[in-house]
Description:
- The chain is mainly beta.
- It has one domain.
- 15% of the residues lie in helices and 42% in strands.
- It has helices at 55-62, 78-82, and strands spanning 3-18, 21-29, 47-52, 68-73.
- Strands 3-2-1-4 form a 4-stranded antiparallel β-sheet.
Amino acid sequence: MQVRAIFYVRSCEITGTDEGRPIGTVNLTAAARGPYKHWAKWTPSGTLSIGTVNADAFAAFVERVGRDVALTITDPTPADLDDAPAAA
């Protein structure tokens, strides 16, 4: 089973840098706005804060502040292990 929810990207807080690029915390609210606001009826309520040290991922969220995003939650698979970064 998978769960799909629409979240609103409320803010991004810079908490550091990685090779000169900002990284930080992404804050989302489970209440869609804009054209996807009808999803709020089916989306669980609450907030989600994601701390990221991946500068590319952080930049992607920064570009989406003030917009809705879709989150799909599924069980991990063995293929996900193949894409994992090597342990330091």
